[in-house]
Amino acid sequence: MNKGQYQLILGIIVLTTVAVSIGIIYYFSIKPVGLCGWCGDTCQRTFQGIKCPAILPPAGYECLEVNGECMIRAVTTTTSAIVQPECIEGSYRCTGKNLERCASGKWQFVQSCPYDCLTDHCISVTTTTTTLSPSPTTTTTVLTTTTTTTSPPSILAPNLVVGNMWSYSGWEALVSGNTTYNETRNVTKIEKFQEKNTYVLNYSYTNNLQWLDFDWHILKDEKWSGTSVLRYTYTPDKKWYDFPLILGKEWNATYNVTQDFIDLTDPTKNRSSAYDLGYYFHVKVVGLETITVPAGTFDAYVLEYNYTQKPPLNATYTWYKYWFSEKVKGIVKEVTYGPPYYNESSIFSVIELTSYTLV
Predict the structure, then answer these.
(1) What's the longest Cα–Cα distance across the chain?
(2) First CA to last CA across the chain, in angstroms?
């Protein structure tokens, strides 16, 4: 190799080295190292081994690469509107911890759930804690088991319409012996009485008319016999029911009665009297049962009515036991007891639902 060739090769090596160096410098000048991310509260390129301060990044922002630069951008979230269930008569919904029921075309408060409300019913939580005995080398171990159980929903006073009808069959004990009978109860009209909207119910077996307000309190009873009527008006209203019905709920019903006898053919026989009956009813919702009667099988609240006389007699009897079903908007079974108190041997009468029509 002569001197000229040596200088040519050396020049080529120098130029190649320079070109590679320039390429490396150029590459790293336009291609930053690492990915964009948070280093403490700073948005920058991060790489393995980088030390960042123990500071949380700002809430609501993200660090990302935009056109080769690390940029901070606010995080936008889309919140979907909560769709409330349609108000279908008799259906339930939860609003927070409150249970609501659709009645008369609008949502009405039923109760505040003691633990929480899930979709359309209250839930309760039972917590069982078991403590294991410690050993010299261990600490006390606590085992907690949480069981979620559903609670039966409360029910509001059912809405009735003209044409609703319930048919029953039953028996009652008379002096002459037991007798069987059939009865139809139906809503004949809706009218005002004492400034209140009322349902007027007809009881075919006893030939009785009854006025219930929309809370199902009894305002008046009329018992017809031919051309005469015996009318009972209650002050205050006779609280036979106290809706909403809730398991364990109890109430008292105290009232006075105005009694009117009206003879449509001979007004001289008409008479009126007001008196204190001297007793009150104590009512309690004692259970929720699935009961089968001729009309079918129903979930029903069980109500017990206890009759107590005022002093000095202070006599107490259990008069009635009702099975009330929301599905049929009424009683599916009714048992009347006489002395001695509340047992099977003291049953005076029983009726059971055989069919019903809800318009």
Answers:
(1) 158
(2) 117
- Please report, for residues 114, 192, 251, 309, 317, the alpha-carbon distance to residue 337 in angstroms, rounded to integers and kept in the order given: 35, 34, 20, 16, 8
Tokens of 257: 């009665």
Residue type at 184 in one-letter notation? T
pTM of the predicted model as reported, rounded to 2 decimal places: 0.59
> Which regions in the chain score pLDDT beneath 70?
1-8, 10-11, 14-15, 18-33, 76-84, 90, 114-115, 122-153, 175, 274-279, 308-318, 339-345
Query: What are 9's two structure tokens?
Result: 């090769």
Contact 211, 239 (CB under 8 A): no
Q: Which amino acid is at 228?
A: S
pLDDT (tens digit, 9 = 90+) per residue, 276-325?
655 678 899 999 999 999 999 999 999 998 876 665 555 566 588 999 99
Q: Answer whether 107's CB lies under 8 Å from 96's CB.
A: no
Q: Is the previous residue joined to 158 through a cis bond, with omega within 30 degrees of 0?
A: no
d(CA 323, CA 49) in angstroms, rounded, equals: 75
Angle at 173 between CA 251 and CA 275, to 5 degrees: 45
CA 296/CA 147 separation, integer angstroms: 33
Instruction: Write out the DSSP string of 247-314.
Output: TT-EEEEEEEEEEEEEESS-GGG-EEEEEEEEEEEEEEEEEEEEEEETTEEEEEEEEEEEEEEPTTT-
User: Which conformational region is residue 280 in: left (phi greater than 0), alpha (psi within -120 to 50 degrees), or beta?
Assistant: beta
Residues 6+ apart with CB under 8 A from 166: 184, 185, 186, 328, 330, 331, 353, 355, 356, 357
Give the CA distances from residue 310 to residues 22, 43, 241, 277, 307, in Å, rounded to whole numbers and listed in that order: 111, 82, 21, 9, 10
- Compute and round to an integer the Cα radius of gyration of the chain: 40
Q: Long-range contact list for 230-239, CB < 8 A, 24+ apart?
A: 230/259, 230/260, 230/261, 231/259, 231/260, 231/261, 231/262, 232/257, 232/258, 232/259, 233/257, 233/258, 233/260, 237/213, 239/283
